[in-house]
């Protein structure tokens, strides 16, 4: 069996999370409140991805990719909510 490529698996992990984001975007077109809860809905596919990646040693490097993309999503979500909060609550 070939040696796993951690760098490739890192980007595969990021791709899996991006695919989950796209699916949530499609579902959110039918149910828009889900888009407001991206942090909660993200857990629905990030946690199973981590469990799936831990089961096979050939997927070494996938978990850091998944967590990196989840962290980027969290930071972008927090920045957007902070901007909206500042715009709407800061302007008395």
Briefly summarize what is shown.
With 92 residues, this protein is mainly alpha-helical. The chain is 78% helix and 0% strand.
What would you say this structure looks like, in words?
The chain contains 4 helices and no strands. With 92 residues, the protein is an all-alpha fold. The mean pLDDT is 87.
Topology:
Blueprint: H1 6-28, H2 33-36, H3 38-54, H4 62-89
> What proportion of the residues is helical, as a percent range?
over 70%
Please give the alpha-carbon distance between the first and last residues.
64 Å
**What is the element string, with H for helices and E for strands?**
HHHH
Q: Tell me the total number of β-strands.
A: 0
Q: pLDDT average, as an integer?
A: 87
Question: Which properties best describe this structure?
Answer:
92 residues, mainly alpha, elongated
């Amino acid at each position: 069996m070939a040696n796993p490529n951690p760098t490739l698996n890192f980007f595969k992990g990021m791709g899996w999370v991006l695919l989950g984001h796209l699916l949530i975007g499609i579902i959110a077109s039918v149910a828009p409140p889900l888009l407001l809860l991206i942090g909660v809905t993200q857990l629905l596919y990030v946690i199973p991805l981590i469990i799936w990646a831990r089961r096979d040693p050939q997927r070494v490097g996938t978990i850091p990719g998944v967590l990196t993309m989840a962290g980027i999503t969290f930071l972008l979500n927090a920045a957007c909510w902070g901007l909206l909060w500042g715009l709407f609550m800061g302007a008395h």
